[in-house]
Amino acid sequence: MEVLFPVLVLSFLLSISNICLGKDIDIISRTEFLKDGDTIISKGGTFVMGFFSPTNSSNRYVGIWYNQIPVQTVVWVANRDAPLANTSSAVLKITLGGQLSLVGDKGQAVWSANTSRSSVQNPVAELLDSGNLVVRDADDESPENFLWQSFDYPTDNFLSRTKVGWNLQTGHEVFLTAWKSENDPASGQYTLHLIPTGYPQFIIKNGTTEIFSTGPWNGLRFSVSTVEQNTNTLDPQEVVINKKEVYYRYNPSNDLGLFRFVVTSNGFLKAWVWEDEIKQWVNFRSQPADICGTYGLCGGNAVCDIQQLHGCVCLDKFLPNNNATATGSLPRGCHRRKPLSCHNNGSSSDGFLKYSDIKLPDTKHSWYNESLSLQECEQVCLRNCSCMAYSTLNISNGGSGCLFWYGDLVDMRTVHNGQDMFIRLATSEMPEMPGLKAEPHHSTSFRRKIKILALCLSLLVVIVLAGVYIFLYFCKRKRKEQKLKQELELPIFDWSTISRATNNFSEMNKLGQGGFGVVYKGALDGGEEIAVKRLSKNSKQGLEEFKNEVICIAKLQHRNLVKLLGCCIRGEEKMLIYEYMPNKSLGFFIFDQTKKKLLDWPKRFNIINGVARWLLYLHQDSRLRIIHRDLKISNVLLDIDLNPKISDFGLARSIVGNAMGDNTKRVAGTYGYMSPEYAGHGIFSIKSDVFSFGISVLEIVSGRRNSEFINEDQYMTLPEHAWKLYREGKSIALVDKDIAGPYDVVQVLRSIHVALLCVQQSPEDRPHMSSVVQMLVNDFALPQAKEPGFFFGKEYPPRTHAKSSLNEITITTLSPR
Question: Among 10, 281, 329, 697, which lies 20 to 30 A Cα-Cα from 511?
Fold first, then answer.
């Protein structure tokens, strides 16, 4: 007993010292955890992880900081927005599933890092010497196969080998967020993003407002950097662009020592290097460096020059928009002194003037080609009236590729040893070449004067007559437009508003094309995103279809109906302005081998139900009883939450009273979705829409187009294939093999059964949409399905393939038998 007592005392004192002084651990596993006072040190000794409190703060956080320097420099914070007031029993631990969690005193999860796998037998958390906290499977022999890493979720510090940018497959963005203040690590208002739109560039934002841009990457550096600023200390640095990801990464030379980028709480991007001799961090670079770093300070087509008294100057051959002097603040930007002469047929007598030593403009409205030479760049840009400038894409290894700009050139400044760019100007603004300057002709013969006078008089007469004709034409067109606008009872947008919103209908804003014309993405002056359906002059949809779509949608109200914001009419030009659907059409997902995996069965069933309820509303509950006549997968748009919204009422017909349908001599719609009686005889009814709905449901369930089954295994259509499986009791074989996750088999089989009831040969055998809605959501017995109608290759001519487009909207006209 006398021997045992000192041993117990010693053991107790050791445990007390561990609690008070803490201990160093290598990793966090299921049997290890990090508590206040403990630390994890990276194997190379560069970084340490543990609990800390900022200066003048009693809050406790879990963070990572440099280990062997006297100034505590925190580079990452786990619970930045959930500080701990008491850490007496708080721990950082890892669960069986591989989830890293910070648990507070009351046992609640304060912060957690969800991993990509649901079950891991031996998960561990480890701090690498790069400053990256990783969660991995200790049994996995691959050292880089991380379940989670802090480099994917940085705070305000950007360390070497961190990929800042976008994972295009998952949609995850890696970006930096400043501290709220110098001593408060909570998420602040300033963020740093690598913007991939057009061509990659870094943007600093204050909330949603852009305050600084680096300009585009040129293969060696970002455009804002000069040669002196960008020495080889950061090499190798790179911007990687491929189908999977877009990111920037740097790896400074060992001679530089400890190096990091930080987004500060007051909105600056600063590069810091540790100077061991003076034992402190030294600011290596800072952006914005001066007032000219303010994003878009001078407006379009103007350059900020810090050497100028007022900062902003117009580009050479440009004039201020506000009729002010050529210098001074130009918030409204500048315009060309002489207008361009480009025409819609591609002919142009414009040229390009070289501008040097400038930071290249913002690239959100740009396009690039990696293989063209600089001479080819000029020819490509010259053929496109929307192309305003071009420059070399990659200046390394002698230069290659092209970067093209569309619209006004924004956010330029003078930069020493900056890049060259070539800006489009009228030919008359181009410098005359030596030896080609025209010499004055001093002949003043009377005959020549007479000819010139006669020519001038003739031109004057022609101009007067043309002016009278144009005046009468526009008066007539104005009256016609006013009459049409009064009939539509819908907000009318100005042509200039829509042109500005779509960047003059730029190819970069094009969403898709069909038989009606082209659909563009746009943004109104207030920032609201829109989709602009521009009716082509060659479209088979004329004025009546245009009026029909406007009137139908304007008088309908339903959650599954795409919202029509207004229209725009100018002469023969007719446009419909819709709310923008960021996920495009259902066909964009369901027929794509990759994107269809995002639509699990609950989402698909929600879409089926949404379309069914919408058709019931059209046929029975709306103010106008309407037959859509063109229901198909590509006309089902998806909102941000993948909820369905139906579009395109150009072919819709309103029916009066108790009428169920009508007939027509002009059969219009899309092959594969038309009912037999409509395609063959021009007879349409609400049962025609039911048939189209059934085809659409089979496509949603199978993930395949109806047309894909032509000449495949002797099955001429998708309904025939579904019918054969149904008779054999094998309907489950129709289900898309790419549906993610488990699904309700009974619900799937019931959806197929209901779809087959909708595609019956005879309209009388097809259910009303009110019955369809009930059959989808209830479990009562369903009637036996009969053989479906309308097989390709048997009774009707084979499908002719229309030109495909992103939204797959087509208009087909048939002659009835």
Answer: 697
